[in-house]
C-alpha cells in the first residue's frame, strides 16, 4: 500500500504528536500540582484573614471563606477529570504536599487562637458555619484526589486525621459562650460529593434546620455529627507524607 506525499506527512505528524505514556503522566502530575498550588494559595489567603482579625462582625472572614470555597470546588472538579498517577509521580508530589500540610496546620492553629475573640465578638456561630462548609468541601476534595493516587499510600489516614482535627475545631466553636447570629451546620452536611461527571452535586453547603433558642445560647449544641471520612479503594493521596490537614489531597485537606 502506497501513501501520497501529503498523507505520509500527516501520518508522520500524527505519530510525532502522539504523547508517550511518560508524557501523559507528566501532564497529570503538572495538573495536580497546578490544582493544589491554587488550593495552597487559597489556604494561605484565608489564614491571612484569620490572623489579621482583631474583632468585630467578621465579614472579612466570611468573604475569605467564600473565596476559599470557590477555589476548593473548582479544584474538586478539575481533580475528578484527572487520570490516575503512578507511584513515582505521587512521590514527586511530596514537596507540595509538605507545604499543604504545613499551611493547613497553621490555618487551624491560627483559627483556634481566635476562638476567645470570636466569643467576645459574638460570632462563634457564624464562624462555625463557614468553618464547617470549608471542612466538608475540603474532605470531598481530598477524597477525590486520593482516588487518583496509587494504592499503598496514607490517603485514608490523612483524611481521618483531617476529619478529627477539624471536628475538634468545630466542637470548640460550638461550645463558644459568645453565641452569634449565624447558624451552625455540620461539616458532614456541607461537603459535596462528585457525581458521575466528577462535579460536586451541590454548589454550596446545606443550611441547618434552625438556630439555637435563647434558652440554649449559653450552651449551644454541637454539630449533629462528626465528619465521616469517605475513603475509596486505593486512596493514597499522600503516599509518603505525615498526617496533615491537606495531606496531598491525596488525600487536601486538608
Automatic annotation (TrEMBL):
Highest rank taxon of the organism: Eukaryota
Signal peptide limits: 1-22
Protein name: Cell wall protein
TM regions (residue ranges): 230-253
One Pfam family from the record: HsbA
Record keyword Nucleus present: no
Keywords assigned: Membrane, Signal, Transmembrane, Transmembrane helix
Keyword Cell cycle: no
Species per Swiss-Prot/TrEMBL record: Colletotrichum sojae
InterPro entries per the UniProt record, alphabetical: Cell_wall_mannoprotein_1 (IPR021054)
Biased composition (Low complexity): 198-209
Coiled coil: none
Cellular component, GO, one term: extracellular region
Annotated segments matching region Disordered: 183-226
Amino acid at each position: 500500500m502506497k501513501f501520497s506525499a501529503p498523507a505520509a506527512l500527516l501520518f508522520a505528524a500524527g505519530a510525532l504528536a502522539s504523547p508517550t505514556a511518560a508524557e501523559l503522566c507528566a501532564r497529570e502530575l503538572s495538573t495536580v500540582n497546578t490544582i493544589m498550588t491554587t488550593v495552597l494559595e487559597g489556604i494561605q489567603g484565608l489564614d491571612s484573614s484569620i490572623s489579621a482579625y482583631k474583632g468585630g462582625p467578621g465579614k472579612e472572614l466570611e468573604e475569605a471563606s467564600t473565596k476559599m470555597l470557590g477555589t476548593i470546588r473548582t479544584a474538586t472538579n478539575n481533580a475528578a477529570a484527572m487520570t490516575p498517577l503512578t507511584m513515582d509521580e505521587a512521590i514527586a508530589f511530596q514537596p507540595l504536599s509538605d507545604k499543604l500540610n504545613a499551611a493547613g496546620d497553621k490555618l487551624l492553629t491560627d483559627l483556634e487562637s481566635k476562638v476567645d475573640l470570636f466569643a467576645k465578638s459574638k460570632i462563634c456561630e457564624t464562624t462555625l458555619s463557614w468553618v464547617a462548609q470549608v471542612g466538608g468541601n475540603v474532605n470531598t476534595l481530598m477524597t477525590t484526589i486520593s482516588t487518583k493516587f496509587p494504592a499503598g499510600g496514607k490517603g485514608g489516614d490523612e483524611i481521618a486525621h483531617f476529619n478529627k482535627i477539624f471536628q475538634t475545631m468545630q466542637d470548640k466553636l460550638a461550645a463558644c459562650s459568645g453565641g452569634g447570629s449565624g447558624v451552625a451546620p455540620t461539616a458532614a452536611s456541607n461537603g459535596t460529593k462528585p457525581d458521575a461527571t466528577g462535579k460536586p452535586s451541590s454548589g454550596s453547603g446545606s443550611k441547618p434546620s434552625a438556630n439555637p433558642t435563647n434558652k440554649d445560647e449559653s450552651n449551644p449544641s454541637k454539630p449533629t455529627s462528626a465528619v465521616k471520612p469517605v475513603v475509596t479503594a486505593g486512596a493514597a493521596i499522600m503516599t509518603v507524607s505525615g498526617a496533615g490537614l491537606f495531606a496531598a489531597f491525596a488525600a487536601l485537606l486538608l
